[in-house]
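Section 5.1 Outputs to date
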Amino acid sequence: MATTCDSSYDRISELKAFDDTKAGVKGLVDAEITKVPRIFHHLRDDSDNTSLVAAEGKFRIPMIDLEDVHKGPPQRKEIVDRVRNASETWGFFEVVNHGIPVDVLEEMKDGVRRFHEQDVELKKEYFSRDYTRKVGYNSNFDLFSSPSANWRDTFSCVMAPISPRPEELPAAFRDILIEYTKEVMKLGNLLFELLSEALGLNPNHLKDIDCSKGLTILGHYYPACPQPELTLGTTKHSDNDFLTVLLQDHIGGLQVMHQNHWVDVPPTPGALLINIGDLLQASHRTL
């Protein structure tokens, strides 16, 4: 989509006015706007020659069952081989039977929704653009530097290696944040073991160099948009971490790049999407 040049348009002022509300995109929806503000309009990328492929078409993201990972060397080797192949060819894979109870996953999703849909005055207590803070919320971490804003609000919390005190966490989902952290750290340690073995290394290698030491939880919220054709919830990007464990809700819309195609990743109940991050790729090249 193209926009015309308008010398009277003051983008910085519009960005600041939006940010000053501390209400995020949810605040715009609550105000019952009918037109998406210009700061959220996305320009068409004419250099993007990728094409969209439906999930049921040519490509489907690898699904790896972890149920037998501790049952013996043959079963573990098969899983390691699948992790290696998926990581090399896709950089993404889904895992099922990963050990995190479904009710924990569902409560985590519900908790994120509770936080974003609570009274705005309660959310404002956590609003910040100081990224040295362990706990915070805002809309678009790169609001003032990106060409266009995403239709998305985000809660963020650094839970490891040193977690916040419980009273520093939002009451809306304090308990589940703590429980989910314990569960996802266990899964992360297992994944780093499997990735180490896939690289032909000692199972503890990636953990020993602190790849699994930290954990930041991001809770994204994408409210209904009155003009979805003008904006995006998340623009194309790579993750600048070692590993991302992504918990999808039932809405869908997630896509990953594979062989110059955008491939749909439909939500699978109980599954988690694993993304090999930039730092792990860089570490791999130096091993």
